[in-house]
Structures are given as C-alpha cells and as structure tokens.
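$ run holo --ligand "adenosine-5'-triphosphate" --emit tokens
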Amino acid sequence: MILVIVKLENVGLRYGVGPEVLRDVSLTLEEGAFHFLTGPSGAGKSSLLKLMYLAHRPTRGLISLFGSDIATTGRDTLPALRRQVGVVFQEFRLLDHMSTFDNVALPMRVANVHEKDIRKHVTELLTWVGLKDHMSARPSTLSGGQQQRVALARAVITRPRLLLADEPTGNVDDKLAVRLLHLLEELNKLGTTIVMATHNEGLVRQFGHPRICIEDGRVEQMGPLRPAHRPNVRMEGKIR
Ligand SMILES: Nc1ncnc2c1ncn2[C@@H]1O[C@H](COP(=O)(O)OP(=O)(O)OP(=O)(O)O)[C@@H](O)[C@H]1O
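-- output --
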C-alpha cells in the first residue's frame, strides 16, 4: 500500500493582512517520492516548505503530514511529527557556539544514539560532503558553500522520513551540487521522501524527478523536465 506523506487540500496562506501568497494549493506526496520545487523568485517555494514543516499554519484548507490532519492533531503530538522531518533552511540556521561536528551530531544526540555510532556516522557524512578537515571549525568561520553542506549533513544524518530542502545547492559549484544530489538520491533510495526547492534548471533536467511548479502562488504538479534537446550537429553528405 502506498502511503501519503504530505497532503494539501485547497490550502491558502497569507502573511498578516497581506495578499494570499499561496492560493488553492492541492498536492499529494507519496512515500519514497523525490520532487523538485521550482518557480521564480518570490513565487512561494519557501512558504510552501514552511507549511510542510509546520512552521506556518495555513490561512485556509487542510494539511496532513504522515496521515495526521495538523488542524486536529494535539499540540503535544506535533513535535513528534516534526522530528520525522529533516529541514535544510535557506539561511542554514547553524549553531555557532558548537563545532561543525557537533552541529551535525546534534539530532543524533537528541535521539540518544550511542556516542560511538555518532562519531562514525558524522565523520563519514562530513567526509562525503568534503568537510573532513573542518569538523572542529565553528560554522561562522566556514564559507557559505561549506556552511550549506553542514546544514545538509545535519538535516540528513538521522535519515528523516521526509526531507524538505530549500535550495540546498544554492551556494556550491556545479560539480559539488551534483555530488550533493547523489547524496540525496541515496537517501531517497533508503526511503526518505524529498522535496528540494531549486533554481538550478541543469540539476532538474539531469536528475529528472517530477516537479512541483509554483507560479504566482499557484501550484501544479508536473512530470520531469527532460534533458535539453541537442541538435544533431554531425553533417553527412552534401548540403542540399
Ligand atoms: N514572513 C513574511 N512576511 C510577509 N511576507 C512574506 C514573508 N515571507 C515571505 N513573504 C512573501 O511571500 C511571497 C513568497 O515568498 P517565498 O519566500 O515563499 O518565495 P520563494 O519562491 O521561496 O522565493 P526565492 O526563490 O527568492 O527564495 C513573497 O512575495 C514574499 O515577499
């Protein structure tokens, strides 16, 4: 049986007394799916992710997460739902009084994982994202792209059931972006449902996952973007 991880029905969101920034949003994300979230700057991508990780309540409509309607779920149950969601924030939100290692280890420590396993997994993951030599550094001493990788590592270290990533490759070069996408693909194969907001059309084409497209606050679920058509430049015979 296919489980629905996130369901939105006729959802609207406005900030304060402003206009609705998301309108009539209905979408369904099944367990194990991987979606790119695309749309122009200011279209509402971060707002949609915030609804999904329960940082905002919708102004109207229904949201369910892991099968629980969040409007009727008790306040004491919401943290348990949130703990199953990994989030990569656009602005990273790393803790600067802790080392890179401890930032990534934090969700495992909260989950009471044995310190020996924490050391093994965090070291492996930080090595994978190219930060082996920066494990004891404070986040503020790292570059933007390095901080972004710490934020991604922290979000995936506990293999969350749902990963919401807001432009997780926005600050790294193309080669590293592809490497990080491979990390997300591995996580997805292990069962994590992923929504990744991105402006990088090259990645969207290369990795060919279905899209959630936002334009002017309206959302449409669409199929993968195919690789760009390459004209056949080989010329044979005479030009007629
Ligand atoms: N806290 C807020 N208060 C008021 N308006 C907000 C707030 N956050 C976002 N908005 C507005 O909501 C709209 C959607 O913003 P959002 O950040 O969701 O877009 P986005 O698609 O993620 O943009 P970008 O690609 O630039 O990150 C914008 O018009 C923005 O000004």
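-- notes --
Strands lie at 4-14, 20-30, 34-38, 60-65, 68-69, 85-88, 162-166, 193-197, 211-215, 218-222.
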